[in-house]
C-alpha cells in the first residue's frame, strides 16, 4: 500500500520538472511530436533533453555514420559505423525514456519537402540542424510559418552557435513572474478599506493598542493606514515620486514603537515595489489593442476571447483596473489576521473572476459557441496573470532573408567589435558557402588545411555581398574577419561541448513554446563559446 | 611524443573535428599556443576530477569524454533514485539503488572508446590532499553549498609553488544557471561569492511555533518541532515515504487548525528535502559551458572565462558574463581578517547563535578561540566541559575590542578570522 498522499510513479519520475511547469505543461509536452532534421550532435543533444517529457520524436537524415561523427555525437556508437545515422541515433535516444516514442526517416530534407510536404504539417515543432541548403530552409519556412508551427534553425560551427526561431505568433499567459501580488495600496477596494479601519485605525494610539498588537499589524494595513494619514496632510495625494516615497519611509519609521517592529520594516521595504499607480502594463495593452482581441470570430483562440473579456471588465466595469490576482506575500502577523487579510484579497479576486467568466460566456454565445468551451480555471489563470501576459509577434525567415531584412539592426551592431553580430554574418556566409556548391555537395569552409585561405576569402566575399544587398557599410571589419577565421578554423566540425550547450538552449526554448509558459526568445540568439557570451537580436 | 599518438592511432578520423581546433591556431588564440601534439598530449595525460554524478555530473562526464580527456575520476556518494531517471540520462530503471558514480562511469566508458573513468562511491571529505593534488583540473557539478565550500577551500589550501588546480563550478535552478572558473588564490573563489548563493532566509522559530501563516510554516513545524517531540531519537529520513506521509499528515492538521490552505504531499517533500527544481536542458547548458572552459584551459586553444557566466532562460535568453572580484577579507583565499561588531553585553552563546544565523558564515558547531585563550571547544568532551561555563559569560568579560577571534567548524575546512569591535 502506498503512503498517504504519496505521488504516482509518473509524478515521482517527473517530480522536478512538474515543480516548474505543472501538470498542464507536462500534458502539452506529452502531446508534442518533434521533427529533428539531421542527427547532428546538436540535434541529438536537443532530443536528449526533450526525451524527458515529450510524446514523440522523428529524425530525418539520409547519411551513414562515419568515424568522425563519434568524436562529437554521444548518441552514436562503435557499432553504428556505416549504418543509417537517423536509425542509430533514434535507437540510442529511445533508450532514455521508455514512455517516449521515436522513429526515423532515411531521407534528406530537400527530397522530403518535395515528396511529402503535408507530413511536415503534422509536427508540433521542427528543428533544423547541420548543413541544409538555404533554399530548403526557406521552403520549410514557407510551409511552417503560416501554420504557426514553431521552426528552429540551429547552426553550430566550432565555438559559435546561432539559433533562430521562426514563429508567427506566440501568446503566453503563465510567464512565471517572481510574484503576481498586486496589493492595490493606491486603490483599495471597500472590503480592504474596512479591514484597515478595523485593524489599523488606532495603530498610533498607545492607549488602545498594545505593543504586541502594534508589532503584529500586517504591513499591508500599516501602509494603508499610513497612506491615509499622509494624504490628509498632502492635499489628498499619495507619495508619487522618489523623494516623496523616501519621505514616506521616514514617516513610517516615525510610527515604529520599537526597533523590533518587523512589520514596519517590511512596510518600509514594500514602499518602492508596491507604490505604483494601478495602470495596465504596456504588454497587456498591446494584447488589448490587437485586432484579434477587438474582432473576435468563431475561430478565435481561447486566449483572445479571455483577453477580450478581461479588457471589457477592466475598462467598462472596473475603472481601468485589471482583475485582482488575489495573491498575498507572507508577512509578520498573527495567523488569524493574516488569513483574514488573505481572504479579503482572495474574495475580491473571486468576485472579479466571476464577472470575467460571465463576460466570457456571453462572448462565446455571441460567437455561436458552446458557453462551456472555455473552462473557469483557464479564465482564472489568465485573470491572475493579466498584468504579465505576453504576445510575441515573430518574423518569418522570408522576411529576414528576402522581403524585409533588418539592415538597421545589423548596421548598428556592426560598429561594435565585441558584438556577436560578426558571428551572425560569418554563419550567414557559411550557409551561402555550403548552399552554392553545384554538385549538390555541402563541403564546409576549412574542411581541408590546404583550403583555409581560399575558403576564408570566399566567406568574406559572401559577407560583403550580403552587406551590399542590405546597403550596410562594413565597419569593424577586423572583428568580422576574426569571426570568419574561427568558423573556417573549425572546418565545419561540431565541438561536443558547444553542440551540447546549443542542445540545452534549444530544448529550453522548445519547452517554453510547447507549454506556453515562461517567455520564449525572439527571434535569434548568438552564443560565443570563446568569450562565453550571448546576444539576442530581432532579425 | 608517445602519449599524443593515442589520439591519432585510436582511429584516424574519430577526433577530426576536435583536432581542427587543436591543429589550427584561431584568431583569438593566445600567442603561446603551439598547435598540434602539445594540446593533445595534455588532454591524454592530464587527470581531471569530476565532483558529482547527478544531473550536472552525467553531462560533465559525457562532455569531458567527448572533449578528448582520457583519465577522468568521479566522486559521488549517492545512489540512484527513481526521480533522477528522467534527467540523469546515464541511468535506467534497472540502476535504481546503485552507485551514481559507478553506473555513470561504466556507461560513458562503454559509449566512448578510449576513455578511462575511475568512480568513487564516497564523500569528497574521505579523500586526502595527496589524492586531490594529482589532478590538473576539477569540475564541480553539485547542488550542495557545503560540499562546494569544502572543495573550494581544499583546492585553495593546496596551492604552492608546484600546485594550482583550477576549479570549474556549475549550478542550476529551474531555467537559470551559472558556470565559473576559479583559479585558487588568483581569482575570486567560491567563498568570496558565498553571499550570492545563500539559501533562502530561515523562518523564525517563533513563527513556526505560534503564528504560522503559510503552508510551508506548517510543514516546517511538523519536521523541526513535532518530529523530535513525538519521535524522539528516530532520525528523520526524507527519502522514506512513510516519514514524509507522517509529516504531511501533521502539517495538514496544523494547517486546518489555522485555516491555512495549500499543504500538499509534493510541497511537504519539497520543503523538507529543500528540493531545487531541476531540468535536463539547464543542466546541459551549464555542464557544457563548464566543460568548454575545461577544454580551453587544458589546451589553450582559446581564451577561457574570466570568471563568471550566468544564464537565465525564464524571460527570453539572457547571459551575463563578468569578473567576480576577489575579496581581500575572504576567509579562504584572502589574507585579511573580517571585522565584526558585537554587543559587549551579549553572552558567548548569543554571539554563537548570531554567527550561525549569518548567511555568509553558515556555521553548524563552531569552536572559538582568541590568540591568547580558548573560549569554547565542541570537542573533545573534556575540553567542552571545561569551556562550557564561558557560554553564559558576557563578551566584555571574555574578550577585548581589537581581539582576533578564530572560529573553526566541522562544516568549514578553514578557520574564520574576525576582528572584534564593540558597539555602543
TrEMBL record, chain A:
GO terms for cellular component: cytoplasm. Residues 14-533 form the THIF-type NAD/FAD binding fold domain. Transmembrane segments: none annotated. Pathway: Protein modification; protein neddylation. GO terms for biological process: protein neddylation. Keywords: Ubl conjugation pathway. InterPro entries: APP-BP1, ThiF/MoeB/HesA, ThiF_NAD_FAD-bd, Ubiquitin-activating_enz. Coiled coil: none annotated. It comes from the Eukaryota. One of its GO terms (molecular function) is NEDD8 activating enzyme activity. Regulatory subunit of the dimeric UBA3-ULA1 E1 enzyme. Belongs to the ubiquitin-activating E1 family. ULA1 subfamily. This is NEDD8-activating enzyme E1 regulatory subunit. It comes from Drechslerella stenobrocha 248.
TrEMBL record, chain B:
Belongs to the ubiquitin-activating E1 family. UBA3 subfamily. It is an enzyme of class 6 (ligase). Keywords: ATP-binding, Ligase, Nucleotide-binding, Ubl conjugation pathway. Residues 340-423 form the E2 binding domain. GO terms for biological process: protein neddylation. The keyword Nucleotide-binding applies. Pathway: Protein modification; protein neddylation. The lineage of its organism: Eukaryota, Fungi, Dikarya, Ascomycota, Pezizomycotina. This is NEDD8-activating enzyme E1 catalytic subunit. The keyword Magnesium does not apply. It comes from Drechslerella stenobrocha 248. SUPFAM superfamilies: Activating enzymes of the ubiquitin-like proteins. GO terms for cellular component: cytoplasm; nucleus. Catalytic subunit of the dimeric E1 enzyme, which activates NEDD8.
Amino acid at each position: 500500500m502506498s503512503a498517504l498522499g504519496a505521488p504516482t510513479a509518473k509524478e515521482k519520475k517527473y517530480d522536478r520538472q512538474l515543480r516548474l511547469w505543472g501538470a498542464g505543461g507536462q500534458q502539452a509536452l506529452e502531446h508534442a511530436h518533434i521533427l529533428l532534421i539531421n542527427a547532428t550532435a546538436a540535434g541529438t543533444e536537443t532530443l536528449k533533453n526533450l526525451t524527458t517529457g515529450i510524446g514523440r520524436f522523428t529524425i530525418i537524415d539520409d547519411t551513414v555514420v562515419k568515424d568522425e561523427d563519434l568524436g562529437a555525437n554521444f548518441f552514436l556508437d562503435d557499432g553504428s559505423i556505416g549504418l543509417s545515422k537517423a536509425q542509430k541515433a533514434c535507437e540510442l535516444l529511445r533508450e532514455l525514456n521508455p514512455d517516449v516514442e521515436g522513429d526515423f526517416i532515411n531521407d534528406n530534407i530537400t527530397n522530403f519537402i518535395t515528396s511529402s510536404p503535408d507530413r511536415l504539417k503534422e509536427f508540433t515543432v521542427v528543428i533544423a540542424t547541420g548543413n541544409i541548403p538555404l533554399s530548403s530552409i526557406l521552403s520549410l519556412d514557407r510551409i511552417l510559418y503560416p501554420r504557426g508551427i514553431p521552426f528552429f534553425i540551429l547552426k553550430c560551427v566550432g565555438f559559435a552557435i546561432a539559433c533562430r526561431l521562426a514563429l508567427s505568433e506566440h501568446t503566453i499567459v503563465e510567464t512565471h513572474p517572481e510574484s503576481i501580488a498586486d496589493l492595490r495600496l493606491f486603490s483599495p477596494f471597500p472590503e480592504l478599506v474596512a479591514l484597515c479601519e478595523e485593524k489599523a485605525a488606532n495603530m498610533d494610539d498607545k492607549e488602545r493598542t498594545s505593543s504586541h498588537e502594534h508589532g503584529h499589524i500586517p504591513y499591508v494595513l500599516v501602509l494603508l493606514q499610513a497612506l491615509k494619514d499622509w494624504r490628509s496632510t498632502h492635499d489628498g495625494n499619495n507619495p508619487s515620486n522618489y523623494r516623496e516615497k523616501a519621505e514616506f519611509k521616514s514617516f513610517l519609521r516615525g510610527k515604529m514603537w520599537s526597533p523590533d517592529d518587523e512589520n514596519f520594516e517590511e512596510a518600509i521595504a514594500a514602499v518602492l515595489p508596491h507604490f505604483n499607480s494601478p495602470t495596465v502594463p504596456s504588454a497587456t495593452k498591446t494584447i488589448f489593442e490587437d485586432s484579434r482581441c477587438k474582432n473576435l470570430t468563431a475561430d478565435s483562440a481561447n486566449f483572445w476571447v479571455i483577453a477580450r473579456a478581461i479588457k471589457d471588465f477592466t475598462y467598462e466595469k472596473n475603472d481601468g483596473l485589471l482583475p485582482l490576482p488575489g495573491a498575498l506575500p507572507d508577512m509578520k502577523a498573527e495567523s488569524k489576521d493574516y488569513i483574514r487579510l488573505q481572504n479579503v484579497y482572495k474574495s475580491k479576486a473571486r468576485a472579479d473572476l466571476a464577472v470575467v467568466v460571465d463576460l466570457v460566456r456571453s462572448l462565446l454565445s455571441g460567437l455561436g459557441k458552446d458557453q462551456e468551451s472555455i473552462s473557469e480555471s483557464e479564465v482564472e489563470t489568465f485573470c491572475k496573470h493579466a498584468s504579465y501576459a505576453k504576445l510575441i509577434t515573430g518574423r518569418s525567415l522570408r522576411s529576414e532573408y528576402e522581403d524585409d531584412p533588418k539592415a538597421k539592426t545589423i548596421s548598428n551592431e556592426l560598429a561594435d567589435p565585441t558584438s556577436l553580430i560578426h558571428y551572425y554574418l560569418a554563419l550567414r556566409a557559411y550557409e551561402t558557402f555550403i548552399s552554392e556548391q553545384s554538385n549538390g555537395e555541402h563541403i564546409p569552409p576549412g574542411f581541408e588545411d590546404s583550403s583555409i585561405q581560399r575558403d576564408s576569402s570566399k566567406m568574406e566575399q559572401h559577407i560583403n555581398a550580403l552587406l551590399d544587398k542590405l546597403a550596410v557599410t562594413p565597419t569593424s571589419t577586423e572583428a568580422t574577419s576574426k569571426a570568419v577565421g574561427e568558423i573556417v578554423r573549425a572546418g565545419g566540425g561540431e565541438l561536443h561541448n558547444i553542440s551540447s550547450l546549443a542542445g540545452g538552449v534549444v530544448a529550453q526554448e522548445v519547452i517554453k513554446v510547447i507549454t506556453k509558459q515562461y517567455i520564449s526568445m525572439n527571434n535569434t540568439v548568438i552564443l560565443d563559446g570563446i568569450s562565453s557570451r550571448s546576444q539576442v537580436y530581432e532579425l | 611524443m608517445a602519449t599524443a599518438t593515442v589520439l591519432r592511432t585510436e582511429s584516424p578520423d574519430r577526433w577530426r573535428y576536435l583536432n581542427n581546433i587543436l591543429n589550427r591556431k584561431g584568431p583569438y588564440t593566445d600567442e603561446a599556443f603551439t598547435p598540434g601534439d602539445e594540446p593533445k598530449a595534455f588532454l591524454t595525460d592530464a587527470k581531471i576530477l569530476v565532483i558529482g554524478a547527478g544531473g550536472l555530473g552525467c553531462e560533465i562526464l559525457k562532455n569531458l569524454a567527448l572533449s578528448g580527456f582520457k583519465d577522468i575520476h568521479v566522486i559521488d556518494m549517492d545512489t540512484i533514485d527513481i526521480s533522477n531517471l528522467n534527467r540523469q540520462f546515464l541511468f535506467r530503471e534497472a540502476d535504481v539503488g546503485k552507485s551514481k558514480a559507478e553506473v555513470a562511469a561504466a556507461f560513458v566508458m562503454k559509449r566512448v572508446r578510449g576513455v578511462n573513468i575511475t568512480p568513487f562511491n564516497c564523500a569528497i571529505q574521505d579523500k586526502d590532499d595527496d589524492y586531490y593534488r594529482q589532478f590538473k583540473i576539477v569540475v564541480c557539478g553539485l547542488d550542495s553549498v557545503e560540499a562546494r565550500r569544502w572543495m573550494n577551500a581544499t583546492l585553495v589550501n593546496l596551492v604552492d609553488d608546484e600546485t594550482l588546480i583550477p576549479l570549474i563550478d556549475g549550478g542550476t535552478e529551474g531555467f537559470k544557471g551559472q558556470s565559473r572558473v576559479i583559479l585558487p588564490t588568483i581569482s575570486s573563489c567560491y567563498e568570496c561569492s558565498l553571499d550570492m548563493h545563500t539559501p533562502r532566509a530561515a523562518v523564525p522559530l517563533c513563527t513556526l511555533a505560534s503564528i504560522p501563516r503559510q503552508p510551508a510554516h506548517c510543514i516546517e513545524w511538523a519536521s523541526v518541532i513535532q518530529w523530535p517531540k513525538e519521535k524522539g531519537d528516530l532520525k528523520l529520513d526524507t527519502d522514506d515515504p512513510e516519514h514524509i506521509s507522517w509529516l504531511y499528515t501533521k502539517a495538514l492538521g496544523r494547517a486546518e487548525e489555522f485555516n491555512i490552505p495549500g499543504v500538499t504531499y509534493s510541497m511537504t517533500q519539497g520543503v523538507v528535502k529543500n528540493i531545487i527544481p531541476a531540468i535536463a536542458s539547464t543542466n546541459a547548458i551549464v555542464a557544457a559551458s563548464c566543460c568548454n572552459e575545461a577544454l580551453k584551459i587544458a589546451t589553450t586553444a582559446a581564451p577561457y572565462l574570466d570568471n563568471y557566466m550566468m544564464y537565465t532562460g525564464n524571460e527570453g535568453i539572457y547571459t551575463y558574463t563578468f569578473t567576480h572580484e576577489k575579496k581581500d577579507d575572504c576567509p579562504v583565499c584572502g589574507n585579511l581578517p573580517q571585522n565584526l561588531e558585537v554587543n559587549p553585553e551579549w553572552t558567548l552563546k548569543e554571539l554563537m547563535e548570531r554567527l550561525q544565523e549569518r548567511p555568509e558564515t553558515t556555521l553548524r558547531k563552531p569552536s572559538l578561540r582568541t590568540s591568547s585563550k580558548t573560549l569554547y571547544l565542541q570537542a573533545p568532551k573534556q575540553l567542552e566541559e571545561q569551556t562550557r561555563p564561558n557560554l553564559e559569560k558576557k563578551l566584555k568579560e571574555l574578550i577585548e575590542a581589537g581581539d582576533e577571534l578564530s572560529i573553526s567548524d566541522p562544516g568549514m575546512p578553514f578557520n574564520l578570522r574576525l576582528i572584534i569591535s564593540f558597539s555602543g
